Amino acid sequence: GSAMVARALWALLAALRAGWCLLPQSGYLHPDEFFQAPEVMAGDILNLQVYYPWEFLSSSPCRTVVFPLMTSGVTYWVIKSLQQLDICSSCINSYTLLVSPRLLFTIFSFILDYSVYRLAPFWGADPWKALILLAGSYVTLVFYTRTFTNTLEGLLFALLMVLVSSRKSSGSSAEPTSSSLIGVITTAGFFNRPTFLAFALMPLLYWASLIVDSQKSIKTLINHFLKLILCACFTAIVFITADTFYFTSMSLDNLYSTNKSSLIDVIAQLHEKMIVTPFNFLSYNLNPHNLALHGSHPRVTHFMVNGVMLFGILHILAIGAGFKMLKKYVHQLMLVRWCYHGPPGLLVHSEGSPTLLLFYFVPLAFLSLFSHQEPRFLIPLILPLVLFSASPNRAVKWKLLLILFNLLGALLFGCLHQGGLIPCLFHLEQLIHSPASSSHPRHYTLLFAHTYMPPRSLLNIKKTDMHVEVIDMAGSGEETLCQTVEQRASNFTCNDCHIFIIIPGTVRATVTKCGVSFRNETLIFPHLSMEDPPQLPVLSSGNWRSQLGLYVLELDR
């Protein structure tokens, strides 16, 4: 009976994950969810006006193009093909541009559920308990349905854990196919995000210890490691070739229009200029000055703040269990050294829990070595954490707290956080492409202030169209903002010029000081800016809706 209830609950949570993706989710977590894949691919494949981040410029290639092509690239190619074949006349719009890559990631997120179901019996966890902890976590509902490289990192980490746990440590050898696949996944993970090595370290050590433990022949042992290295090298060559080809030819549009002779020239350049994006990424990120530009945090931020923010009580319980097991292990180590003169086998010969804790805390420790620490960097750790938390001897006594924590997390990050910006871009896209705009060409200036970077691709403007100008003022001060607004207001040169200022309600007063009047205003609710948070006394007054909103203000002539 309880198993049936658990299955029904998981199915409900899985439906919520897919349904909420299609709604769509309005929360905007971080600019990287757009600017590390969808925005770049929208420019390359759909020929839309976009903002290319510095990592994707040929002068500083720090991100592989393989994963963006395989995810957002494929979905955009599909909607472009559907439109060209007249299967749907307006397939390309702000909704499909946002939702199609997210939907693919949501489908991929079920790799996590499959991995948990496969791994639970191996690590002595209750499969359905683990699946509910996973599917009910706001990390799965929000972060794993977004187009982050961290999401792909989590999925590759899950697959790696499935491969290394494919056989029991009872003496039987690992599956012959796993060596090759482990090589492929580790290299692909490294090219996606070089930090993947921190997650892969423990699974690889565990796999190596199983191989050494189960193989009596040195020849078989060498064969396993050779397979892994050869497949890793082959995968690296594929990534290096694709990246070099992309960055030397500048964009996919150039590739489509290239004739045979220039293609040969591009291939010839592969020998001259090999682009290895992870090395460029590492050389940039290992420079403390560069990391400081993105924000410096204390080394304990992941351990003390981000872990709690993402996983709540599960992270705290894991820390408690970790200290208990460390104490027990030190005691055992001393006992064994005195009595048997040999170390206890923590990795292979112990029950699942200590090893799962190592799978959780070792990557966390490595990521803590860097001064730039964001919560999303830890999302791959959800897998060992739910497996550890769902072991039968660990009853979840904190059910109500877990439910409330995940409801709050889903509301905050899935709806409120910068939540007005995506609906605002939808609204502006409809306005720009309205029949009135089509019949009489108008010029639009969109000035964004105190919001996250707006993904231009969602405005659905072709590169050839010059009638829309986007100005991102980021967190500019009052003086700079007013200067820009006044300058634009005084330069009203045509009858069909429209200037819109997009600004959170908490800083709206700044624009009213600029000495300009507005023709009309639209309030998009809800929108929570953590950089310009609402004041609690104002929230308790009748003005709370304006404080939790994003204004679209049209400048009067």
From TrEMBL:
One of the Pfam families matching this protein, by short name: Glyco_transf_22
Membrane topology: Multi-pass membrane protein
Biochemical pathway: Glycolipid biosynthesis; glycosylphosphatidylinositol-anchor biosynthesis
EC number(s) from the headed UniProt entry: 2.4.1.-
Keywords: Endoplasmic reticulum, Glycosyltransferase, GPI-anchor biosynthesis, Membrane, Signal, Transferase, Transmembrane, Transmembrane helix
Entry keyword annotation includes Transmembrane: yes
GO MF term list: alpha-1,2-mannosyltransferase activity
Cellular component, GO annotation: endoplasmic reticulum membrane
Matches recorded under InterPro entries: GPI_mannosylTrfase
Coiled-coil spans in chain: none
GO biological process: GPI anchor biosynthetic process
Family the UniProt entry places it in: Belongs to the glycosyltransferase 22 family. PIGZ subfamily.
Protein name, UniProt field: Mannosyltransferase
Organism: Gymnorhina tibicen
Lineage: Eukaryota, Metazoa, Chordata, Craniata, Vertebrata
